[in-house]
Amino acid sequence: MDISKLFKKNEGDFTTFPLTLETYAWFKPILILIIAGLIAFALSAVVMAILRADPSKDGIIQLIYTAITMIALIPGIYIATKLLYKIPFSTQIAPVRKWNWGIYIKVFIISAIIYGAFQSFQILSSGVSINPPSIAIILLCLILPLFQGFAEEYLCRGLLMQTFGSWFKIPIVAVVLQALIFAVLHPYQLFAFAGVFCTGLFYGLITWYGQGLESSSAMHAVNNIFAFLAIGLGIQQSAAGGSSIISFVMNLVLLLVPILIIIVLDKKFNWFALKE
């Protein structure tokens, strides 16, 4: 992928895909967000009522509630986009090329190894005690992040990035703006906020580079799984993680290492080649 294309007007890539649709209109993404938000709110409220969960509680219960709310955006965005753009789910998540499960699985494994090594070192070096939760909580910590990670990518690197790309037609503008909104949706302290912004920025860049959501979805899922487990096991108190400069730097390392590996492997094995 030619990096210079990030800074040029481009109407033929992932970020500007909606412009190729006959049903596109500049205001439709706003309507999609409103409809998707209403559907997600209704669905999450029903699920939490069935589970009889109290979303005001801190810790893992609050994290699970947040995850369910985000996951509810998947059917919300799908239904709203289907209504207004009249395109199937497969086209919504992979408009430029077919969704490639091979990429998702390989990126997931690479990220899991890196995050796992870091988390293990952190536990061993800190000597923190682990408080094992119930089996049900552990399963939720392993399963929910898979869908939550995809839901956030579907929203931010999918809908929002393509919305800004269609409005401004310059990929880097879309990448930066969606990352800013992604950070605003995570109201943490300064360094943690900057870390989330960088996360959204690099997820946006790897999405643009690969012209699909597979890499960012896999990386996001792994990040959330380890965050869920850290809170569920009592290692960490909140999803914000640390708010120090050291935590910020470590976050950048955990982002950059798998992305660099992905790019190197793509150069060698042509992972992101368009396939019919």
Q: What is the strand content?
A: under 5%
Number of helices: 10
Silhouette: globular
Q: What oligomeric arrangement do these chains adopt?
A: single chain
* Spans where pLDDT lies below 50 across 5 or more residues: none
SSE series: HHHHHHHHHH
Number of strands: 0
| Class from secondary-structure proportions | mainly alpha
Gap between N and C termini: 18 Å
Indicate the mean pLDDT.
88
**Range of helix content:** 55-70%
Main beta-sheet annotation: none
Q: Whole-number radius of gyration? A: 19 Å
Description:
The chain is mostly helical and 276 residues long. The protein has a domain at 3-20 and 99-269. The chain has ten helices and no strands. Helix 7 (171-184) packs antiparallel against helix 8, helix 8 packs antiparallel against helix 9 (214-232) and helix 8 runs parallel beside helix 10. The protein is globular, with a radius of gyration of 19 Å. The two termini are 18 Å apart.
